[in-house]
Please model this.
Amino acid sequence: MATRKESGSAPTTVMASTGGTLDSPVKQIQIEGLVVLKIIKHYQEEGQGSEVVQGVLLGLVVEDRLEITNCFPFPQHTEDDADFDEVQYQMEMMRSLRHVNIDHLHVGWYQSTYYGSFVSRALLDSQFSYQHAIEESVVLIYDPIKTAQGSLSLKAYRLTPKLMEICKEKDFTPEGLKKASIGFENMFEEVPIIIKNSHLINALMWELEDKSTVADKHELLNLSSSNHLEKSLQLLMDRVDDMCQDIVKYNTYSRNLSKQQQQKHQYLQRRQQENTQRQSRGEPPLPEEDITKMFKPPQPPPRMDTLLIAGQINNYCQNVKEFTSQNLGKLFMAEALQGNN
Amino acid sequence: MSRFFATGSDSESEESSSADEIAPKAPGTTFKQSLLLSDDEEDTKRVVRSAKDKRFEELTNLIKTIRNAMKIRDMAKCLEEFEQLCRAFLKSKNIVDKEGVPPFYIRLLADLEDYLNQLWEDKEGKKKMNKNNAKALSTLRQKIRKYNRDYETEIAAYKENPQESADEEEEKEPGDSGSSSDSEGEEGEDGVSAKAFLKKKPDASADASKFLKTAKGSGDESSSSDDEDDDGDWGSDSVGSGSESSDDGDGQGASMAMVFLKKNQEPEKSDKKVLKKKKTKKKERLEEEAEEEGGEEVEGGWEKVKGGAPMVKEKPKMFAKGTEINVPVVVKKLNEILQARGKKGTDRAAQIELLHALANIANENNLGQGIMVKIKFNIIASLYDYNPNLAAFMKPDMWKKCLDCIDELLNILFENNNIFIGENIAEDSESLSNTDQPYRVRGCILTLVERMDEEFTKIMQNTDPHSQEYVDNLKDEGRVCGIIDRLLDYMETKGSTEEICRIYLRRIMHTYYKFDYKAHRRSLGLQGESKSEQDQEESEGEDSAVIMDRFCKFIYAKDRTDRIRTCAILCHIYHHALHSRWYQARDLMLMSHLQDNIQHADPPVQILYNRTMVQLGICAFRQGMIKDAHNALLDIQSSGRAKELLGQGLLMRNMQERNAEQEKIEKRRQVPFHMHINLELLECVYLVSAMLLEIPYMAAHEFDARRRMISKQFHHQLRVGERQPLLGPPESMREHVVAASKAMKMGDWRTCHSFIINEKMNSKVWDLFPETQRVREMLVRKIQEESLRTYLFTYSSVYDSISMQTLSEMFELEIPMVHSIISKMIINEELMASLDQPTQTVVMHRTEPTSLQNMALQLAEKLGSLVENNERVFDLKQGVYGGYFNRDQKGGYQQNKGGYQRGKSDQKGGYQQNKGGYQGGYQGGYQGGYQRGGYRNQNQNNY
Model:
């Protein structure tokens, strides 16, 4: 779990440290303040409610550190321009940026999230294709709601090599996942982030802080909790429902499987008996038949979605836990204050 | 025909018949065009074949099939053949290049395009087409358009100058007649034979009219019938000639035929015996198979048709001057006339005329009532026969005649007590002449009246319900009822129980749907009326309720066929419901167990059942039993096909699914307009009752995860209302109800009331009830009560306590009423509160969980089921002994659930218990898990 500390307001540095070593080419991510501001601005302008915004990250790899120096948003999709070519747009954009001497290497993408709901099939697929093509690429998840409450929430994720392996083979059967010994805990790995601010950014930050109202500054101290919790619970419940369905599916599958196994067994036994009888009578044994043809195993349900849901549930739980612990702290603080007064 | 009438006299019949000859040809000409064209092709074919290639033959063959397909409007076939034709044409490309495009090919293209366009324009016809055909039509049309672009010039040339070919046709016509297609052959022969008949017909018509003039004075009728007579005659001959070509010779020599026929008289009479048997069968079946039999007789048509044709001519001769007219003679003649019945060539109108004439003769000669009754029976039967197919309805004058006849017949029957009628009396044992012993006449008056009733229904079905005509027709209902009543009296003295049951049912069918205003007024006991007036009313007749009761009970006791009893029960219930006798109606419905087995009944009975259920529901609504009303109407309304289920019209969307035949059958099942149940009223009643049930329910179960809907349709309406981007003031009835529901959701009964009861809704719905004012009062009351409930559900969490005084003022209900509603809610554990008697307040217990708590509870429930499911997976994997959790765990969860429920229902400590449940559950589970810790870890890892 990432721990975050905010050191004053000047060079905002968000440090995330994960236990254990990462066996990936990227051990650390350094983000320019410009990128953070651009992402925030993008969401502010285009995302509302549960809509997500996405964009491309640009930068380069220095030793085991990925430096993200710039980014640009994907345009919002509308039904009108169905023939809009995204790839074309990206290439065009990168070429233009190259002309003004900005890093033009594609190193990943970013996405906003709504109450921490980002662990989805879509994210998995696109991150897989990114990581497949560009090994060092990451996905930055920006949580605007948490950020609005006063603490910037930006996390970088990569798929673990195990998951990459599975996705490459497209083997999502229960057996396959079991063999790969992958659980929801080790699907994604979080990469620690360092935010590096240039002096210009620092100056801008100062200016912005001067301009912001008192209420904005003290959002951090807001005591109300039920709204946020309700939303989280709602989402959590939906996921639990999905999980339930998946489990029921899996249950039926395994029941069918075992039933069939039993039948197969019975059949074999009967066969054997008959053969021994025949032998005793001196007749030739019955010819071997293809058992797999007679008992076709039922189609195993894909388990990847279940894994993702589990991951998502875990995510929600962490969120709720974090939120409640913070809020409890705040409540105690408020109580103490009241007592003093 | 009026044309002939205008020209008038008998001497001109020569002319009229020649005009006649043209008349039938006229409609055929358009048709002929295409037919003759095909001839023409044949001709070209001949030329080409001798000179050129077999390719052209192939083409012509294909073209012929296309033409045939066009004739029978088989578009699919047309399309198929056309594609083949195109292929064949491509094959013969080099020949075409040499010879130029063959003219017949161009002709087909042009004709086909015209034909298709014409079909395309004919919207009506297109609708009637089945799916395949319609599809084929559109594709073919596109194809031919594209294709014809290549041959534009040729086609244009052909279109400019089609005469050429037409001229050719004229010449060819006589020679070709027998060759290509049957219908054509017939027409060709028509031309020939028609000329031959010219000689014959004038005699006939002249004779007939002469005869009629002497017999009775009604000149205009006779002449008009004459004309029709001619027609019929003509038609029969043409059929005769069409069926057998050797017949032609006979037909041509008209005079020869006369001679021949006269000779034939004897054998024909011997035939009669055989025919008679057929007749009796027919009578019983009410001529429904008239068409069929006509078909049967086609094979033997030659003889029989002959029998029909000469009849007309002989009739004047049969009562030649000086003949003594007595019963046997008349009966013989009657039978002769009846011989022609049901045959293809018989002119039905003329036959009716003849029968009338016969009746008059019989009357003039005082032959006794027996023969009159017999003739009348036959007249009525022939009137019914007039329409050859079952779907068509009687013309007004026929209908009038029919009613008159039946009236007269009844008069005779009433006046003469000594006439026995029955369908079982054999024709031989009939006694018509002896005055000393009672008359015995074959025939069934009951069947005739039933048929009359059906005809009446048919007439009503086929009249536009919004026209004056409908009203005029409806006035006949009184007469129909009168006839049924009289017959009922007659039957009560003479008929068997089955017959009485049948006539009772007829009577019931005419009574059950009518609201008895008289009885209604009487029951209200209007004092304003003077005594004498009341007396007069009473003497007018008994209440329909009493009548219904008497008849229905008779049927329940005596009827042996299930159908009549079922119908009677349903009508009885309907009648009860219509007159707001809810309990009787409901009890009868429940006792009859009709709901269990109505699906085995035939469609008309099912329609009646649906009508009854709807009426029952509406009755319950009027009585304020909202729940019953909702339940009764649910089945009909939820299907969304109320119109169809009640037999009040066909749904458009089914048009594709059923073919014309089914549609016809369904149309025949429709209930006449004056018996309709107002669909808007029905829907409104349903929606309002759904609203009164659903809105408080929704408010009470706002956070319930497993909330089910009471009424899907109502929810659908609500959703439709929500989807509106811009919500204006409500217009339709549905919008009113939706708007009212929204108001009720907020507990705002005044707005709700104003939406449900206002000018618009009054005129649309509420004024349709007989006791409008009472219903409206009931409705207001219900709205107030349910709004109060909704209000308490929705806002109880806001209050600590609320005074009943305030509530009673808010909802304009009396305090005891408020008290009772709240008490009921508390008892049903819907509201966590207690009543404080001294202060007259409701004290809320803050046990209603907040929304967050509610959600947490839901989540816990869901997690419970998740764990249970998970457990099952592990059960499977590990066998029964090694579960993920121990058995206690399950118990623990169930305890837990108990805890929730108690938490909801108990006032305090519910939560603690809840927690206890949780802890217990977890501990148990944990221990269980702990004991098998090793397993569990393994499992987890595996997983």
User: Anything to note?
Assistant: Chain B is about 75% helix and 0% strand.
